[in-house]
Design a protein that fits this description.
Largest sheet: 2 strands, antiparallel
Strand order of the largest sheet: 1-2
CATH class: Mainly Alpha
Structural class: mainly alpha
CATH topology: Ammonium transporter fold
Distance between the termini: 61 Å
Helix content: 55-70%
Number of domains: 1
Shape: globular
Number of helices: 14
Order of helices and strands: HHEEEEHHHHHHHHHHHH
CATH architecture: Orthogonal Bundle
Low-confidence stretches: none
Radius of gyration: 21 Å
Mean pLDDT: 97
C-alpha cells in the first residue's frame, strides 16, 4: 500500500496536538490547586508521558488493538509487542507507527485526567502504581471493546457504539474512576470549611486554551482522514466549545451577576467533552445544542457535588464524567439523517435514534461498571501496599515539599 502523504501529514499534526494537551492539562490543574501543591499536581499530568508512554509501546497497543484473545476480553498481537512488527506497516495510507503514536497520546492523557479528582492528597509513588494498574485493567480493555475492529461494542448494532474520540473510553471512564477514587481517599484536610483558592487562574486560562487547541487533533484526528470527516469533526468541536462557554457565562450572570474566568474555562471543557463522542455524527445545530446542555448539566452537577460533600478536587467527574456521558447518550437523537440511512442499509431495515440510544446505553453501563469496580480494587491494593493517601502532616505541608522537595514559585510562603 502507498503512503497517503496528505492524511499522514494531518495525523502527524494531530498527534502533536494531542500531546500538547498534556502540558495544557498540567497548567489547567496546576493553576487550580493551592500554591504548596502546584508542582506536585503538574507532575501528575507530566509523569503519564513517561509511564504510559513506555507501557503503550510495550503492551498497550497490543492489548487495545490486537485481535481478540481471552474470549474477547482483551486483544493481543505479538507484532505489536514493543511495536517490533510494524516497521514497514501501512494502515489506510498511514504508517502504522503514526497510528500507534496517535492512539498512545489518548492513553497518556486519560489517567492524567483522574489526577484532578485526587489532587493535593496522594503519594507520588502510589499515583504511579495506580495509573499503571488502571491503564492495563481499565483503559486497554475499553479501548479494545469500543475501538478495535473485533471489539464486542464496536460490533454492536450496524455501526457499533458511537465514540469518535473517547467519550466513553476516555472521559466517562476517567470521570467514573475519579469519583470512586475521591470517595475512597476521603476529603482533603479542612475541606470544605477551609478556603482552598486557586493559586494561579492565569495559568489555568492558558491551560484551557491549550486544551481547546489540542482538541482539534483529538477529535478531527480520530477520523484518520484529511477529508470531509475531519472537516466535520473539527467544525463541531469548535462550535460545541463556543456554545458551552456562552451558556456557562449566561448561567453565571443570571445567578451571580458576574462573568468569571473559572466559569469560562469550565464552559470550554463542558463543550469539548460533550462533543468528543459525537463530533463525527452531528451537524452544527446539534453541536450547539450539546454544548449548551452540557454546560447547564455540568454546572448543576458541580452544585450537587457541594451538597453531597464528596471531594472531587478539580471536578473531573462533574465535567468529564457527566458532560461526556451526556454526550454519549444525547448524540443518539441528533445524528445526521445520512448516518441513519447508512446504518439502515447495513442493518437491512430501518435503524432509528432509539435503536442507537440503546447501543449507547449498553456502552455507558459497561464503561461505568468496569471503571468503577476496577478503580476501587486498585485503590485498595495501592493503599494496602505502597500507600496512597498522604499523612495529615504531609498533606498540610504540601505535595511540593513532601513529595518533590521543590517549590513552584521560588522563595514564597507556602502556608
Amino acid at each position: 500500500m502507498q503512503i497517503d502523504s496528505g492524511t499522514t501529514a494531518w495525523m502527524l499534526i494531530s498527534t502533536g496536538l494531542v500531546l500538547l494537551m498534556i502540558p495544557g492539562l498540567a497548567m489547567f490543574y496546576g493553576g487550580l490547586v493551592r500554591t504548596k501543591n502546584v508542582i506536585g499536581t503538574m507532575m501528575h499530568s507530566f509523569v503519564t508521558l513517561a509511564v504510559i508512554g513506555v507501557l503503550w509501546v510495550a503492551v498497550g497497543y497490543s492489548l487495545a488493538f490486537g485481535p481478540n484473545v481471552a474470549g474477547g476480553l482483551i486483544g493481543w498481537n505479538w507484532d505489536y509487542f514493543f511495536l517490533k512488527g510494524i516497521d514497514e506497516s501501512i494502515v489506510n495510507g498511514v504508517p502504522e507507527y503514526v497510528i500507534a503514536m496517535f492512539q498512545g497520546k489518548f492513553a497518556i492523557i486519560t489517567p492524567a485526567l483522574i489526577s484532578g479528582a485526587i489532587a493535593e492528597r496522594v503519594t507520588f509513588r502510589g499515583y504511579l502504581i495506580f495509573i499503571t494498574l488502571w491503564f492495563i485493567s481499565v483503559y486497554c480493555p475499553l479501548a479494545h471493546w469500543i475501538w478495535a475492529t473485533d471489539g464486542w461494542l464496536y460490533l454492536s448494532g450496524p455501526k457499533g457504539v458511537i465514540d469518535l474520540a473517547g467519550g466513553l473510553v476516555i472521559h466517562v471512564s476517567a470521570g467514573t474512576s475519579a469519583l470512586v477514587a475521591a470517595i475512597f481517599l476521603g476529603k482533603r484536610y479542612g475541606f470544605p470549611h477551609n478556603t482552598m483558592n486557586p493559586n494561579n487562574l492565569v495559568m489555568t486560562l492558558m491551560g484551557a486554551g491549550l486544551l481547546w487547541v489540542g482538541w482539534f487533533g483529538f477529535n478531527a484526528g480520530s477520523t484518520v482522514s484529511s477529508g470531509m470527516d475531519a472537516a466535520r469533526a473539527l467544525t463541531m468541536t469548535q462550535v460545541s466549545a463556543s456554545a458551552g462557554v456562552l451558556m456557562w457565562m449566561l448561567i453565571e450572570y443570571i445567578k451571580f451577576k458576574k462573568f468569571t474566568s473559572l466559569g469560562f474555562v469550565s464552559g470550554i471543557l463542558a463543550g469539548l467533552v460533550v462533543i468528543t463522542p459525537a463530533a463525527g455524527v452531528v451537524q452544527p445545530i446539534g453541536a450547539i445544542i450539546l454544548g449548551c446542555l452540557s454546560s447547564l448539566i455540568c454546572f448543576y452537577a458541580l452544585e450537587l457535588k457541594n451538597k453531597l460533600g464528596y471531594d472531587d478536587s478539580l471536578d473531573c467527574f462533574g465535567i468529564h464524567g457527566v458532560g461526556s456521558g451526556f454526550g454519549v447518550l444525547a448524540l443518539s437523537f441528533l445524528i445526521r439523517d445520512s448516518w441513519l440511512k447508512d446504518a439502515s442499509k447495513i442493518n437491512g431495515s430501518n435503524w432509528s435514534n432509539t435503536d442507537q440510544f440503546l447501543i449507547q446505553l449498553k456502552g455507558m453501563g459497561t464503561t461505568i461498571l468496569l471503571a468503577g469496580v476496577a478503580t476501587y480494587i486498585i485503590c485498595l491494593l495501592v493503599e494496602k501496599t505502597v500507600g496512597f493517601r498522604l499523612t495529615k502532616s504531609e498533606e498540610l505541608a504540601g505535595l511540593d515539599h513532601t513529595e518533590h522537595s521543590e517549590t513552584g514559585y521560588g522563595l514564597i510562603n507556602l502556608n
